[in-house]
Every structure is written in structure tokens, then in C-alpha cells.
Specification:
This protein is α/β, with parallel strands linked by helices. The protein is built from 17 helices and 27 strands.
């Protein structure tokens, strides 16, 4: 087992040459199938198309889409010519989109129509109205001066936007030798992917990940599950997350196996895809597995082909792990980490005892040094003593984009990345996560930073002070709770607060619970004790006769 210096493009070309006729990408619901060779050819055509519209090494390409077939085409096309793919959360709304496009210096934004209750096309036009009157490729936006192109992923045509057939057609104007020249300029230590995460403080930050970071993390993840080229992985987790684009896609890329893609999570479609394609592996956050197990048609599907997978993204209940093992035949593993660690830092192995796979997040990834460090003194702590879980190694991000100060806050002078999570290592080298120093809310695998919601809600007239904190949830692990102190004489209701958020911030960030309080729990020095708000929420809900879902 060793780390590889191959770029993503080199990995793709390796399998296109070695197993050209083997299936790489399958959409079972529409019988869409690409072999490694077919997919690689489409990627090269798309890469030339991107070059034709001004994309070059270091250019930032944003992708705002569910797991559509060309999501991966854009990833690898950009990777081959040294461009950087910036993933955009599919749940983002207007203000979040605008922040990311500006902060990430997006040059080319690739979008679909949209999901849930919002049109991406409409939001892009609202963000950059100049687009409607601009010649494609020549947009000149006052607010977003770096943004030159918008590409619609599909056949439809919109004013000022390219669509994918047009990009592929433009690629015919680029000589193959120019593409080969561009490929030769790409190094495995170049940034290839930026993902936005709230981190520990402030607004979302762009995590810069290299080919070396993510390809090797995907490879080792697969090794821990004994992956081979004969495996078929059902991918129903979103590609804009590290879970999807690294733990899933990079695992497939480095093992030469097949990925069966689900465009948007649907428990019935997942079960049907596993059954039809005889998938051997399945990933998901706990809520996904719960939905699959409880689907009324669950028993109609033959899942005996399954052997392994990953349950991650939030706390994995022991009882759920048992059901998945017994009813879905899965030797489930757990991965712990964060976007900044590419993301895997520790993982249980497929041959670990069930108790280890259920009750811990496993041991260090190879070539990674994980340590439990005293957050106050910086001292490395012995087994059995709680401290902050930190790591250093090949998997640590290159840094936050254009934010050296924030980078220095999480990567110390010894090269250790600080997670903000509390944990303990046992005598066998396995880690247990016991809490968080930071007050991040993790709802069904989505990282939500309270300050972002607090700053938005401060604009609602009548609010004097607000704190946002986690409320325990059986379904999602945690839900968003807003604790509000009103100005004297002000009148607000829970529904008014939620209505103020709808359509303005992502749905998963809208407070599930709104509490109107007179004070916040404070320390003697006047600091708010945010961790006590969780207990307060349970007391207030109990007084209302409400049981958290």
C-alpha cells in the first residue's frame, strides 16, 4: 500500500487504456452507461470545449447541480487542464450563491435547472442581470467581475448561457496537441477541488484540495473495505460533499470499479438500483439507511449482493448499524474527518469486530498521524484522555482560499490540522468522538454554522439578541434551534421567523425550533454558554409537550 502521484486525469486515462470496455458510470433508472473509454473520450471533448471559452490552468469552475451525468465530466475535464472545480451546495439560495461566486472568484459557472423550491437559472439571472443581454462568454458583471461564462448542463438554451452540446461543439476548434500540452502542465500537488465549509468561525471558506489529497484519500478508503475492480458502488450521496466526490468517486477512480449513480436521493431508487445492477457497496448518512430500511417495498428487493459500505456524516446509532448488517448484508465501516482533511482521518476496517465498527470511528488512515491534543496546552494526550482530535499528513488541505489567517487558525506550526472535535483514543488505537469544541450543528450530514444564521436573522425587526444552537433530533442527529430575545414591546411568532428565512437561506439552515427567551445562560465573566442551550431546548419543548423528532 503506497501513495500515488497520479493526477485525476492520469488515473482516468490509466483505466481507459487498461479496461476500456468495463463499465465506469451507470444510471440504472434511465439505462445510461459509460465505459471507461467512452467517459474518458467525453471528458477530453469537454476539456477542449472549456479551453475554447477561456478556461485554463488555475481557472475556477463552479458546479451547481445534483448528481447529473455530466457533473463528473466537468470535474475531470477541468482536472485534465489544471482548472479547479468549486462545488456548490444544491440547497443554496440567492445570498449564499452570490457569496460563493464572489469569494471563490468563479470564472465559469455550470448549473442545472434547480431542485426543491428554487430555480438556479432564475437565481443566476437575479445575481447577474447583465447575462440576459450579454454575448455568451463576454459577460461583464459589475458585482462579479471574474464571472465570464455560465453553462447550462443540458440541452435547453437560455439567454447569455452556453449549454453542454455547444461547449462540446466548440471543443472541435481546439487542436488535440493543445489539450496534451495543457495536461502536461498539471501536477498532483495542484489544487483540483474547492469545497466550501463553515469551518469553526465566520462565513464559509473555500477548502483547497489537491489531486494528491483526494485521490489518495479515496484509494485508502477503498482499501479499508477491500475494494477491487469487480466492485460496484451505489452512489446516492451528493457529489458536492467530500462524502460523494472523494470517499465514493475517488475510491472508484483509484480501484477501476463501477459506480452506479443516483441523481438525487430516493430510497426506492437506491434499492432498485442495488437490486438491478447487483451493487456490492452502498454509502449513506444514517437518515438514508433509515429511509431504505423503512420503505414499504424494502422486502421486494434482493440485496444479498451487498457486502460493504460507509455510514458517516453524523452520529451512527448502534441499533441502526445492526439492522443494516442483518437486513442489508453490509459490513458497514465508519469514516471520521472533515472537508479540510480530504475528508478521511480515521476509518473502521471491514474486518474489524462489529463492536469496533459500531462504537468507534476506527484508527488512523495510513500515512496520516492522528493525535489527541490538549486544546489549552497543545500537549499530546495519552490513551483514554479526552482532547481535541487533530491530524497531519498527505490528506491535510492546502489551505483556505485567499484566507491565510483562517488557515493558520486550524493548521498549527507543527502541521497538525485541528478539527475542533473532542475525542478519546483507546488502547487498541481506535478513536471515539465525544463532543465538539466548536458549536457547529450537523444536521443529517450537513454542516451548519450558527453565526451565519444569527447574522441573517439579526435583520428581522424586533430581534434584540439571538443565539442559534443544536437541538437533538432522532431523525437528523441535530436540528437548528433559534433562541431569541426580543426588543421590549416587539411581537414575533415562530412562523414569522421561519417565513423570513424561506427562500433566502438554504432549507436545512432554517430553524426547526424557535424559542423566545428572556436571557441566555452565561458564565460569571459574561460569556454565553452555548452548550447549555441544547439542554434548555429540551426543557422548553417538554414544557410544551413536544417530543423532538
Amino acid at each position: 500500500m503506497e501513495l500515488s502521484n497520479r493526477t485525476l486525469g492520469q488515473w482516468l486515462e490509466h483505466w481507459a487504456e487498461t479496461t476500456p470496455d468495463k463499465e465506469y458510470l451507470v444510471y440504472s433508472d434511465r439505462n445510461l452507461r459509460f465505459t471507461w473509454q467512452q467517459f474518458n473520450r467525453r471528458v477530453d471533448d469537454m476539456a477542449k470545449g472549456l479551453m475554447a471559452i477561456g478556461v485554463e490552468k488555475g481557472t475556477h469552475i463552479g458546479i451547481w447541480a445534483t448528481n447529473v451525468p455530466d457533473w463528473l465530466t466537468f470535474l475531470y475535464a477541468g482536472a485534465k487542464i489544471g482548472a479547479i472545480l468549486v462545488t456548490v451546495n444544491t440547497g443554496y439560495k440567492q445570498s449564499e450563491l452570490e457569496f460563493l461566486v464572489k469569494d471563490a472568484d468563479i470564472h465559469t459557472l455550470c448549473i442545472t435547472e434547480g431542485v426543491f423550491d428554487g430555480s438556479y437559472v432564475d437565481m443566476v439571472y437575479e445575481m447577474a442581470p447583465e447575462l440576459r443581454d450579454s454575448q455568451r462568454g463576454f459577460m461583464n458583471s459589475r458585482r462579479f467581475p471574474k464571472l465570464r461564462n455560465v453553462v447550462y448542463i443540458g440541452q435547453e438554451k437560455y439567454r447569455g448561457m452556453y449549454n453542454t452540446p455547444e461547449i462540446l461543439l466548440l471543443g472541435g476548434n481546439i487542436d488535440d496537441r493543445l489539450l496534451e500540452d495543457a495536461k502536461r502542465q498539471v501536477d498532483c500537488h495542484d489544487v483540483v477541488n474547492m469545497q466550501y465549509t463553515s469551518g469553526t468561525t465566520g462565513f464559509p471558506k473555500g477548502v483547497m484540495l489537491t489531486h494528491y489529497n483526494i485521490a489518495n484519500n479515496g484509494y485508502l478508503t477503498g482499501e479499508h473495505m477491500a475494494f477491487t475492480a469487480s466492485d460496484k458502488l451505489c452512489v446516492c450521496v451528493p457529489l458536492f460533499h467530500c462524502f460523494g466526490v472523494v470517499l465514493a468517486t475517488m475510491n472508484v477512480l483509484t480501484h477501476g470499479c463501477t459506480q452506479v449513480m443516483v441523481e438525487r436521493f430516493d430510497s426506492l431508487l437506491v434499492l432498485a438500483s442495488v437490486h438491478k445492477e447487483r451493487c456490492t457497496a452502498l454509502y449513506g448518512v444514517p437518515t438514508m439507511f433509515i429511509a431504505e430500511l423503512n420503505h414499504p417495498m424494502f422486502n421486494m428487493f434482493d440485496l444479498t449482493c451487498l457486502r460493504t459500505g460507509i455510514m458517516a456524516g453524523s452520529l451512527c446509532p448502534v441499533e441502526l448499524m445492526k439492522q443494516v448488517s442483518e437486513k442489508m448484508y453490509l459490513q458497514i465501516t465508519s469514516v471520521y474527518g472533515l472537508t479540510e482533511s480530504s475528508p478521511g482521518m480515521t476509518q473502521t476496517r471491514i474486518d474489524d469486530p462489529f463492536k469496533v465498527r459500531c462504537e468507534t470511528v476506527g484508527c488512523d488512515y495510513e500515512f496520516t498521524e492522528v493525535a489527541v491534543i490538549d486544546p489549552e496546552t497543545g500537549e499530546h494526550l495519552p490513551d483514554g484522555v479526552q482532547g481535541e482530535v487533530c491530524c497531519r499528513g498527505y490528506n491535510v488541505m492546502k489551505g483556505y482560499y485567499n484566507n491565510p489567517e483562517a488557515t493558520a487558525e486550524v493548521i498549527d506550526c507543527d502541521g497538525f490540522l485541528h478539527s475542533g472535535d473532542l475525542g478519546i483514543r483507546d488502547a487498541d488505537g481506535n478513536y471515539r468522538i465525544t463532543g465538539r469544541i466548536k458549536d457547529m450543528i450537523i444536521r443529517g450530514g450537513e454542516n451548519i454554522y450558527p453565526r451565519e444564521i444569527e447574522e441573517y436573522l439579526y435583520h428581522l425587526e424586533g430581534i434584540k439578541d439571538i443565539q442559534v444552537a443544536a437541538v437533538p433530533s432522532k431523525k437528523y442527529g441535530e436540528e437548528v434551534g433559534a433562541f431569541i430575545i426580543l426588543h421590549e414591546g416587539a411581537v414575533l411568532t415562530e412562523e414569522i421567523v421561519k417565513d423570513f428565512c424561506r427562500g433566502k437561506i438554504a432549507r436545512h439552515k432554517i430553524p426547526k425550533y424557535v424559542f423566545f427567551v428572556d436571557t441566555f445562560p452565561m458564565t460569571g465573566s459574561g460569556k454565553i454558554q452555548k452548550f447549555k442551550l441544547k439542554d434548555l431546548s429540551l426543557e422548553l419543548l417538554a414544557a410544551q409537550g413536544v417530543v423532538p423528532e
